[in-house]
Amino acid sequence: MFHNRLMMSCLLVAVAAGCGRAQRAPDNARINRKIEIQVRQQLDVPADWSMTVGARQKSDIPGFDNVPITFFSLSQPNKKQTIDFLLSTDGNTLARMSKWDISKDLTQVASTSGRPFRGNPAAKVTIVNFDDLECPFCAKMHAELFPETIDHYKGLIKIVYKDYPLVEIHPWAMRAAVDANCLAAQNGEAYWSYVDYLHTHGQDVSGPDRDPAKSAATLDKLAREQGQKSKLDVATLDACLKKQDDSVVQASMKEGEALGVDGTPTLFVNGERLSGALPVERVWMVIDRALKAEGITPPPAPGEGTPSQPTQPGQAK
Fold first, then answer.
1. What is the DSSP letter of 10?
2. What's the pTM value of the predicted model, to 2 decimals?
3. Superfamily of chain region 117-293
4. Of 21, 50, 279, 290, which sits most exposed with the smallest number of CB within 10 A?
5. What are the extents of the domains in the chain?
């Protein structure tokens, strides 16, 4: 998407040929037009997006001024984005360089406080999965994580799910997330049993006629049945299911958007992002990398033999 292309890490393009004797700075209107043409070509800016080149300002880069460029959709004027470019003082070179804030702990990208988890609560590696309970690709990833991945790492990881229902294409995903959270409020295992069931019986919830009202009734029925199995407080659960408060889900979705999540499943393994239902080997490569960064020896892949048990920092090898 064009929005993603704007976030490219570095763009360095010549705005004009600058050979020969020193030239005086060109007038703003002419150089701004040259900037617009070059940026439109390099970033493939859609024709229905307009660009405004702002005034030059002093930058921290010697020989370059800062030039803000604002992009906005003609059909949606309120949808706009301003990006800073660098323009050489002779007006011949335009550069786009990005800076990233690494002052924060990038291994803790998403809040997991109060969320149900599976695995070792003290694990050095946490996998946060932004999940949609109606998504077939999420179901595939869920099957890879449980039990295959959780068993393979034997206490070295912790897995937490966050809500990211794609409501535009999955009509019952929001209700499923709310109902799952109603269970989670009382018992984490009840939550996971409900999630396990939905990720293996999604077609049953959708039904042959794919009626959202019937799906909602089925989800509530399944949640009540799970509540009974888990010996939850029935009145509290019923009140939660009836209220359908989606504030927790909305907060999770907002958090995901801030992290660049635009589809499901999206995993963060100690901050490293994985998008889509990837083969389990790809997922394990990232988990192994995170373990090694924590000073932990990953378990061998199947077929590599059976060396000594994985070690935690400080343990004798």
1. E
2. 0.72
3. Glutaredoxin (3.40.30.10)
4. 21
5. 2-97, 117-293
Alpha carbon distance 180, 192 (integer Å): 8
Provide the b/e sequence for 29-51 (b: ≥16 CB within 10 Å).
eebbebbbebbeeebebeeebeb
d(CA 55, CA 134): 48
Q: Which long-range contacts (CB under 8 A, 24 or more apart) does 187-194 make?
A: 187/230, 187/232, 188/116, 188/117, 189/116, 189/230, 190/226, 190/227, 190/229, 190/230, 190/232, 191/116, 192/116, 192/118, 193/226, 193/229, 193/230, 194/222, 194/223, 194/226
pLDDT single digits (tens) 56-69: 999 989 999 999 99
Class of domain 2-97: alpha beta
Summarised one tens digit per residue, pLDDT across range 276-317 is 999 999 999 999 999 999 999 999 988 775 544 554 544 433
* Residue whose C-alpha is closest to residue 262's, from 103, 137, 130, 108: 130
User: What does the DSSP assignment read for 146-201?
Assistant: IIIIHHHHTTSEEEEEEE---TTT-TTHHHHHHHHHHHHTT-HHHHHHHHHHHTT-
**Burial of 141 from C-beta contacts in 10 A (0-12 / 13-18 / 19+):** buried
